[in-house]
Amino acid sequence: WGIGYSGVFGVNSEVLGLIVGYLGCIPPQWDRTHLFRVRPHKPPSAQTASPPALTRSPAGPPRIHPWSPPLSDLHAPSWGCQPQTWGTFPHKFGLQVKATLENISKLRPDGEDFRWYLKLKCANCREASDKWQYISLMESVPLKGGRSSASMVQKCKLCSRENSIDILRDTIKPYNTEDSERFKTVVHFECRGLEPVDFQPQGGFIAEGAESGTRFSEINLLEKDWTEYDEKIQKSVGVYEVTHQFVKI
């Protein structure tokens, strides 16, 4: 059997045993054709005397053949046997806000101490937090290796993986009069191993009168509505029906 398979696949019996063992733990829902490509059969005279050596791709683990995809390209479910992951790559999520504005514009967070209250989910074990956690531009925690930092670094209570989330300062945008009653992305978060699933606006917002330019501070949107009176134009101003959603960028 080892000789026969070696003639078909172009690999020795030990390497073939590793492949068969790996395939044995793959769920039937997976397409096994993506794991490796079978070398076309050649007559004995055209076969090489010795099997090709394993080659290492700079992008991942060893490959069976130079033309076969690395194991890191496989997308395994969160259960059962899955290939080893080779590092946690950052993913960006945008927070989109929609509200109805009345005689007001440039609704935005005030200062670097503004707190973004979020609920987060671990991308590895899918465990979601049931408590609100906040991040701000003032807080910065170094990541492992010291090459960069994040607004928050935490270890998952279920799978013990270290995850992080960072506020991208240059992506913070105001919500203006022309944005009223439609979704607009107001900030981006760069996540490693985390995914934001909920947002709670609280205090710390500021805005300006659309006609008068009057500055309004300490706007609290916890109740999803806020109203005030603009003395310059003698009209009421307000923010109503605040809602949100997350989009992956």
Automatic annotation (TrEMBL):
UniProt-recorded Gene Ontology molecular function terms: zinc ion binding
The family this protein is said to belong to: Belongs to the UPF0587 family.
Keywords recorded for this protein, A-Z: Metal-binding, Zinc
InterPro entries: CXXC_Zn-binding_euk (IPR008584)
Residue ranges crossing the lipid bilayer per the database entry: none
Pfam families the UniProt entry points to: CXXC_Zn-b_euk (PF05907)
Residue segments, region Disordered: 40-67
Protein name: CXXC motif containing zinc binding protein
